[in-house]
Amino acid sequence: MRTSTTGRVGQYAALLGYLVFLAFPFLWLVSTAFKSPRELGSLHPTWIPRDPTLDNFRQAFDEQPLLRAAGNSLLVALAAAVIAVLIATPLAYVMARHRTRLAKAATGWVVVSQAFPLVLVIIPLFLVLKELRLINSLAGLVMVYVVWALPFALWMLVGYVHAVPTELEEAAAVDGAGRLRTLVSVTAPLLAPGIVATALFAFITAWNEFFFALVLLKTPEKQTLPVVLTHFIGAEGIADLGPLAAAAFLATLPSLVIFAIIQRRITGGMLAGAVKS
What we know:
It is a single chain. By secondary structure, this protein is an all-alpha fold. It has 13 helices and no strands. It has helices spanning 2-33, 37-40, 55-63, 66-97, 101-113, 118-131, 138-163, 166-174, 179-190, 192-208, 211-216, 225-229, 241-262.
């Protein structure tokens, strides 16, 4: 009993330490966003601003077109998430249900492709987009994000399809449901948590992505929010810390809000009790 209690305390302590490790950068970012220039230059920084101010937010909006950049990021991220899910869902079903050599090879390629560094793929992607005349285009950036998110989206959804009992589809077939009807009425609702999780992954990846957007977008009117955030750093590498923290704080809010809204759907609980033993 004592060993079990000690192990549980150790687990909770490790979890608490991990949460503190994850929360520290965000909490420090929020604190910095509300500090005055005098506090930002202090040799003895504090967690809680002594004289909270919104001047950093006003200055951030005055210096850079944050709303326009956020609109570009939102458009690109939503489009990439929707397209990636629409492509990955039927492909994942085929790969999971038809275990042929081709499907196994495709699954292996999906895993291996995640090891490719961004620098390795940017030149081929740039040349392809140049031929398609999609350089400096949000549509071209969406295409790149879909290609980049698709392997991991497939890998995630294949696992969710495996979790759906085949007995449900067989029972629907016995009741006279066709293949399409079975997929739409039986399988798709059970895949909803996986589809939501995959869409969230694709959205956050596209929302936070910086490298592709920096290389492919040239005109300021089409730049996304991560690229615009770099404009708060001067030519000599000196950051305008207050406005930068304020803008970065605003940039993190959409991901946090979306995750808070749909996090209850990211579970496998919908499968509980679906098959009677």
